[in-house]
Design a protein that fits this description.
2 domains
């Protein structure tokens, strides 16, 4: 391997001499592992560039990880904590490239694929059927990680979808009936349900925020059932079909971030 500013300490410090950080100030950046740079050296470099590296935290939204000596348990816990939130994982080299030109590899699928190829952490993540998110909101996954049971999701017992008659499973609506309600929720003004604060989460008709809230809700229902080992295969199938319907009808025509797996 040739010596470059992205794998050699001396060249790195020389290359970034005049670097002034003007972005990433609102992100929670955590680091883990070594390679090509030692963990302490890399953290000190970030400090010198006015970026504060942390231990892995529940609100970490950027993780910079080395090629070795990273903790699989900590990584898995972070993926669980951030399963429906934004999380971007970079190798040390990828993150330095991002700092160098202010172009996020996540904005270009081909670049991301080349830079992540053969890196141990991305191989590990791929085996978990988790794909990276991009620079828009993270589309919710219906994957249910069965841990210690401490994860919980707040959802009103009689939320908007229930109020409008949305119901899945053996006693639920037909596929036509469910999709009529989903179309109504995405495209129309909504009635006041639960509280004004709750309704603010649904934002404007046909907005990205409206689609996100709708998909988040359905994915959360599905995950919660899966965690209980409940025999609700028909309901799970209905929810996942409805997510795919939203993906095909609304997401593909308006948004361009990476779509995650749902199995």
């Amino acid at each position: 391997m040739s010596t470059t500013p992205f794998n050699d300490t001396f060249l790195r410090d020389w290359f970034f001499t005049s670097f002034t950080n003007s972005f990433l100030q609102n992100d929670i950046i955590s680091t883990m592992g070594t390679g090509p740079f030692a963990a302490y050296d890399f953290d000190q470099f970030l400090h010198r560039k006015h970026l504060i590296p942390h231990e892995v935290l529940p609100n970490t939204n950027i993780l910079v990880i080395g090629t070795e000596n990273w903790d699989t348990n900590k990584l898995t816990s972070l993926l669980v904590m951030r399963y429906d939130k934004s999380l971007k994982i970079y190798s040390q080299e990828m993150f330095l490239m991002y700092l160098a030109n202010n172009l996020d590899p996540y904005d270009n699928l081909d670049v991301m694929t080349l830079l992540s190829k053969d890196h141990p952490v991305f191989i590990f993540i791929a085996k978990m059927n988790i794909k990276w998110s991009e620079n828009s909101f993270t589309w919710p996954s219906t994957v249910a990680y069965r841990g210690n049971g401490s994860l919980s999701i707040y959802a009103p017992a009689n939320g908007l979808l229930s109020h409008l008659g949305y119901k899945v499973g053996k006693s639920g609506l037909s596929i036509i009936g469910r999709r009529r309600i989903l179309d109504q929720v995405f495209s129309s003004e909504l009635p006041l349900v639960v509280s004004a604060d709750y309704m603010q989460q649904w934002d404007r008709p046909e907005s990205k925020e409206r689609l996100k809230k709708l998909a988040d809700s359905i994915a959360a229902f599905c995950r919660n059932i899966k965690r209980r080992y409940a025999d609700n295969g028909e309901a799970i199938n209905d929810w996942e079909q409805d997510l795919e319907y939203l993906h095909q009808k609304y997401y593909l025509s308006r948004f361009s971030f990476q779509w995650p797996l749902t199995e």
